[in-house]
Design brief:
Blueprint lengths: L2 E6 L2 E6 L9 H16 L4 E6 L4 E3 L4 H6 L2 H20 L3 E6 L2 E3 L1 H7 L3 E4 L6 E2 L13 H9 L1 H10 L2 E2 L1 H7 L8 H12 L3 H14 L4 H16 L2 H11 L8
Parallel strand pairs: 2-3, 3-5, 4-6, 5-7, 6-8
Antiparallel strand pairs: 1-2, 8-9
């Protein structure tokens, strides 16, 4: 399988394994979409999106398939990927990308759709080079990249198509740290043991709130924190703080 889902306890893994570059077409993106659905339906509370390749995280869309397909066929792949990415944002699980190799075009967009991104150190490149093909990043890249690193820097990357390394990605806040898979898994395990309701509510505030006027975003935040005040996890977290012990969330 080109994309698979597996789980070990409360940590899940979506693994990209389509040699040589983990490039995707409609079939591969459909497999990714199915893996996302498996992850959401599972008992995993944190999901790491990773690559089986040591050189590529994901090389993006298979350009030859674009040439072979008509506009509708190409748009079918776009619709599948955008829908899968939206479900990731709406899911209660934390999705974490571990970028360990080249992440180009749609490959970078997979990482952008995750809630958190970490990258291995190395000399590989990332970027959105679609403009050099007369296209634009159609899997959310123009929107998520801009929101993550700001319009000025995003515009420069998008309209030039230039690539960048993991150190620049860290400097810009595109990734949260440079670390290996073991460290990413440790972070995933910590998050999986955390307060699931609070994490899901924070995701909703950030993802939905970004689309709302400020007053509506604040109203959503107030609604969700009221629910959390009534939750077992909040009762446990507050009690543990007073008692100076580590909380044990459900």
């Amino acid at each position: 399988m080109s994309v698979t889902f597996s789980a070990e306890g409360a940590v899940g893994f979506i693994t990209l394994d389509n040699p040589p570059a983990n490039s995707y077409d409609l079939e591969v993106m459909t497999a990714f979409s199915n893996a996302v659905d498996e992850a959401i339906a599972s008992d995993a509370r944190a999901v790491i999106v990773r690559s089986a390749s040591e050189k590529f995280f994901c090389g993006g869309a298979d350009v030859k398939k674009f040439l072979d397909g008509d506009v509708e066929a190409n748009m079918a792949m776009i619709r599948v990927s955008q829908a899968a990415f939206s479900r990731m944002a709406a899911a209660p699980q934390v999705f974490i990308a571990h970028i360990n190799g080249h992440a180009m075009g749609g490959g970078l967009e997979i990482a952008l759709a995750c809630d958190l991104r970490y990258a291995s150190e190395g000399r590989y490149r990332m970027g959105t080079p679609e403009v050099t093909l007369g296209l634009l990043p159609g899997n959310g890249g123009t929107q998520r990249l801009t929101r993550l690193i700001g319009p000025s820097r995003a515009m420069e990357l998008l309209i030039t198509g230039r690539t960048f390394g993991p150190e620049e990605a860290l400097q810009w806040g595109l990734v949260s740290g440079l670390c290996d898979m073991a460290a990413v898994r440790e972070q995933a395990e910590r998050l999986a043991a955390g307060p699931a309701q609070a994490i899901a509510a924070i995701k909703r505030c950030v993802h939905e709130g970004a689309q709302l006027p400020l007053d509506e975003g604040l109203a959503l935040e107030a609604e969700l924190i009221e629910r959390l005040f009534r939750s077992r996890d909040a009762a446990e977290g507050l009690q543990a703080f007073v008692e100076k012990r580590s909380p044990e969330f459900a």
